[in-house]
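Table S2 (continued). Query chain:
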Amino acid sequence: MNKNKLNKMSFDKLAGLYSVINEICSDYSKMTDNYSLATGDKMFESMPKDIRDMVHDRQKFFGYRNIVKEVIKNKITEIFEKE
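Corresponding output:
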């Protein structure tokens, strides 16, 4: 999904999307924290492939969250500056 498509979404849909993405990010954070605690690999230096894949997906969703957050912030700014 590109930013133009996000800019056309309603504020409610964006807020819902952000909420879901945020929950996914939270789940990924818990999984990576648990991996680090369980293995003692705090620097993520000797991760098996499945954990590397999970970290890659985690970073992807954190990126999505930042994009949606930026669009939401812009919409909020527009609302307050137009009034």
